[in-house]
Write a structure and sequence with these properties.
Elements: E1 2-10, E2 16-25, E3 30-34, H1 41-48, E4 56-61, E5 64-65, H2 71-78, E6 81-84, H3 96-106, H4 111-124, H5 140-152, E7 158-162, H6 170-185, E8 189-193, H7 197-202, E9 209-212, E10 215-216
Parallel strand pairs: 3-8, 3-9, 6-7, 7-8
Antiparallel strand pairs: 1-2, 1-4, 4-5, 9-10
Helix pairs in contact: 3-4, 3-5
Length: 223
């Protein structure tokens, strides 16, 4: 599904923040992305959701060489990727239900299906009583759950999550990981960037992707 060959990334004229990354993500695999702050995890996710193109190297996604695709072709690939951002990227003028429904409406899903499945998913993540609340009145943890629901509602081929449990307690964090696992069982490839070693240890998915200093290295002993 995804292949990186000798990929490097820099911003402007600065030093490379990612160096010589070579790895593959198989269809239906599940990976934790770990590493200390500043290791390059968010930059790697940016490449994976096609928010940035590499400075050098090859990235192939869904059988396409993304470096040489036209803008409309990149947009078509992005629709196959679900993303949970650290800062949520919710639309403040839309309700929780309408934020989650947005990718389905863009895809042309029937409104009857939307009104059936979106409330079910929001209830599953503990927001059944907040369907019509807008982001400005939601807590950080509630916004996080809306963002996760929006990312998974369309069953993306590739799901990327940047610290998806950072604003919730361990109990809810575990429940959200089960949601990601269920989506993975349905066929989605999942990559979750996290500092939560407890969750990594509990949900032992391999191979684990571990970055240090912008390079992919073996995880710490026991990881």
């Amino acid at each position: 599904m995804v292949r990186f060959e000798s990929v490097g990334l820099r911003y402007g004229q600065g030093a490379e923040v990612l160096q010589d990354l070579s790895f593959t993500l198989e269809p239906g695999s599940f990976h934790f992305l770990t590493g200390p702050s500043g290791a390059g995890k968010s930059s790697l996710l940016r490449l994976l959701y096609l928010g940035k193109l590499p400075t050098r190297g090859l990235i192939s996604m869904f059988g396409k060489d993304v470096v040489h695709l036209k803008r409309d072709q990149l947009a078509a690939l992005r629709r196959r990727v679900g993303v949970v951002f650290q800062d949520f990227h919710l639309l403040d003028h839309l309700s929780a239900l309408d934020n989650v429904a947005l990718p389905l409406r863009v895809a042309g899903v029937a409104e009857s299906e939307i009104q059936k499945h979106v409330p079910e998913l929001l209830a599953w993540v503990g927001l059944g009583d907040r369907l019509h609340a807008k982001p400005p009145v939601l807590s950080g943890g509630q916004k996080q759950r809306v963002a996760i629901a929006r990312a998974v509602i369309g069953r993306p081929d590739l799901l990327l999550a940047d610290e998806p449990t950072g604003n919730v307690d361990d109990t809810l964090g575990t429940r959200l990981l089960y949601l990601f696992e269920e989506l993975n069982k349905l066929g989605s490839t999942v990559v979750i960037a996290t500092h939560n070693e407890g969750l990594v240890a509990r949900f032992r998915h391999h191979p684990r992707l571990h970055l240090e200093g912008g390079r992919m290295v073996p995880p710490p002993a026991g990881g």
